[in-house]
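Q: Here's a chain of 273 amino acids. Please give me its 3D structure as tokens.
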Amino acid sequence: MSVQSTRVAGHFGELLQGRIGRDGPLALVTLPCDALGVTASLVTGQAFSITKASAAIIPEERAVKLLTLLDLSISGRVGFTAEMLPGGGAGVSTAALVALARLAGWQGDAIALARACIGVEGASDPLMLPLPSQILWASRQGEILATMPPPPAMEIIGGFFGPPRRTDPQDVDFPDIADLIQQWRGAATARDLPRIAALASLSASRTLAHRGTQSDPIASLAADLGALGYVIAHTGAARGLIFAPGEVPQQASVALHAAGLRGVVQFLAGGGR
């Protein structure tokens, strides 16, 4: 008997997410978050199974389907430990599926892995790709729509607001962000963090207004704390404030907790990460 493990980092919502045109594909630019992730552990020497405690993250039937789609096999008992709650918009299920594939020996094409994840769940975050924040990602098709410039370095502090909200793969009712994508390219190329933060805020505010969640506290928190902007999980509970590196106010964590956010986390992003 031996124990093996692997960790896959999650993300913290999306810097941009919406339709490209009214009837175009659903696309996003993710915000990678090394501070949150999922660890998959394998105890060998027994038949394949998923621990009972881990079934809330990836049920055994979904694990089996992923392995089948990738033509992989694995023996042993697999458990998942997530540093964030499912439904938070931080990539729990995608990270767990990617970790399972890697435990089973997957070394193939990242797009093939993404499409297998979509075959299991109907949607996938681009966590299996080496530079996920530098692509425009079609999350329902597993397709890179465009290569994007790396966003400038930023520091995020955020948490999770409201109940968990898992992604519904049939839900493509999102605002049009075609105009934001074009502006994003220029702002990222210029390393213009204030403009990037403003565009992320605009994407977030469109989705919040479209879905009738105007009572969300993130915009007020950004104004009160002097953030450059904010980011949300467009189909989850993650909410974050965008600052220049080293500029997060000392009182920010207290303010987020007071506004009802839980699981507060602070991390660096962008700058080629």
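Q: Can you summarize the key feature?
A: The first helix runs from residue 60 to 69.
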